[in-house]
């Protein structure tokens, strides 16, 4: 492996509050859209809920020990909006803030830099009932929440993600209803793009005024492949690239939305000054990458201008044909960003990269050779992109531990450490040892 490139990277692992904390009714925590989603019959494939799950609200010190054992530079965790501000408005909940304060102090004592995400999908239910990300007011409320967190943690936390994967909130949460809040609005979901990016812009100013050294957001991006050589498939792939990648990246990086004619030229709720806020140059641009997306021409009666297809000829993860394994697509994505955006692009961070494969539920050693192969291939893909000129400063594995995998419940496991969800016991997998050795070799 090209250590000359890998020695330039920082190394991290990630989790999200809703997926690991549990303790839904403890410490004054409020109700989020995900609580409501999992309480709705047939929304979660195995009928499970996230409580207690990995129970990190009580076992956070064990998670810190895992980060230290890996030798991580940083730990990407998320702060639950409803644990800090239960209703999405008003004063902070001191019990919730104290929980995150203990976690931050524990990481610093372990020599691991805390790198929190302010929003990883747990929107307070009251804000959703008032319009959610379809409403401009949600962006304003997010700025208020950010100020509460920064006032309490900003003396020790200097590196921040604002939002996680606004594309998935828009596309899966509001457009097709696969994730919370479970709306089915198709292109009427597009105002959520602008309001999420506005929230990022407002939060960026709050965090920088509080002394932050690095602020950015991370989005789920994908390398889009046309299913064949026809002009129709090429046009469909371009439309999907616009919807999944460019509509989210370009307001942040270029200060303008791309031409949305391929999407029917929808009007976005842009007000004077919004794009200036959104395009404050981030200190990094986060890219979460899992798989490529193959796109063909849509059926004649389709309400959308593309058809999503399995990527042919590649192995797949535990999610099946929709999650093809193609590391070279990550190289292509990073190089494309580097060439497309040039000097407008700050250093990139791989904010998430990982894979789920079938594993036992009970505690015990897991020899997850498939995950090691996936991660090894994708780290090499990052190194190849760096050799081709792309600047990538950090690589983050999703995830540190097994967790509640959103609408897939406990049917998918991504962790470097196995979690027995009956006992809460954490057991490092073979991939944990592989990652620890990679980090050590990159530093030697």
From TrEMBL:
* Catalysis performed (reactions): Hydrolysis of terminal, non-reducing beta-D-glucosyl residues with release of beta-D-glucose
List the SUPFAM superfamilies hit by this protein, alphabetically.
Answer: (Trans)glycosidases
**E.C. no:** 3.2.1.21
Pfam families xref list: Glyco_hydro_1 (PF00232)
Q: Does the keyword RNA-binding apply?
A: no
Q: Which InterPro entries match?
A: GH (IPR017853), Glyco_hydro_1 (IPR001360), Glyco_hydro_1_beta-glucosidase (IPR017736)
Keywords attached to this entry: Carbohydrate metabolism, Cellulose degradation, Glycosidase, Hydrolase, Polysaccharide degradation
**Regions crossing the membrane:** none
Protein name, per record: Beta-glucosidase
The scientific name of the source species is: Gordonia alkaliphila
């Amino acid at each position: 492996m090209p250590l000359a490139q890998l020695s330039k990277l920082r190394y991290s692992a990630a989790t999200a509050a809703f997926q690991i904390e549990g303790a839904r009714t403890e410490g004054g925590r409020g109700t989020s859209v995900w609580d409501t989603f999992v309480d709705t019959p047939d929304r979660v494939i195995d009928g499970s809920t996230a409580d207690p799950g990995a129970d990190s609200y009580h076992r956070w010190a064990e998670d810190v020990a895992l980060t230290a054992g890996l030798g991580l530079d940083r730990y990407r965790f998320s702060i639950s909006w409803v644990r800090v501000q239960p209703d999405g408005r008003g004063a902070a909940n001191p019990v919730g803030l104290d929980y995150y304060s203990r976690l931050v102090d524990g990481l610093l004592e372990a020599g691991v830099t805390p790198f929190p995400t302010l929003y990883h999908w747990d929107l307070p239910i009251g804000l959703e009932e008032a319009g959610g990300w379809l409403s401009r007011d949600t962006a304003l409320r997010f700025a208020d929440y950010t100020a509460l967190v920064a006032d309490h943690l900003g003396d020790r936390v200097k590196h921040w993600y604002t939002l996680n994967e606004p594309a998935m909130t828009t596309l899966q949460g509001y457009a097709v209803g696969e994730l919370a809040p479970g709306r089915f609005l198709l292109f009427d979901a597009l105002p959520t793009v602008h309001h999420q990016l506005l929230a990022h812009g407002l939060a960026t100013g709050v965090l920088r005024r509080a002394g932050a050294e690095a602020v950015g957001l991370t989005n789920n991006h994908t390398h889009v492949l046309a299913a064949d050589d026809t002009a129709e498939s090429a046009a469909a792939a371009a439309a999907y690239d616009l919807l999944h990648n460019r509509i989210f990246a370009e307001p942040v990086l270029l200060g303008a939305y791309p031409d949305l004619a391929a999407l029917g030229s929808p009007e976005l709720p842009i007000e004077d000054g919004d794009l200036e806020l959104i395009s404050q140059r981030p200190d990094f641009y986060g890219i979460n990458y899992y798989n490529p997306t193959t796109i063909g021409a849509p059926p004649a009666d389709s309400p959308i201008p593309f058809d999503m297809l399995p990527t042919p000829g590649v192995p797949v993860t535990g999610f099946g044909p929709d999650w093809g394994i193609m590391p070279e697509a990550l190289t292509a994505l990073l190089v494309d960003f580097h060439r497309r955006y040039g000097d407008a692009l700050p250093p990139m961070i791989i904010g998430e990269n990982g894979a789920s494969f079938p594993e036992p539920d009970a505690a015990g050693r897991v020899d997850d050779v498939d995950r090691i192969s996936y991660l090894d291939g994708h780290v090499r893909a990052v190194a190849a992109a760096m050799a081709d000129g792309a600047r990538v400063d950090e690589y983050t594995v999703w995830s540190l531990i097994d967790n509640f995998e959103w609408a897939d419940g406990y049917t998918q496991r991504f962790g470097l450490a196995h979690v027995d969800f009956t006992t809460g016991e954490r057991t490092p997998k073979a991939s944990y040892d592989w990652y620890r050795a990679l980090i050590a070799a990159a530093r030697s």
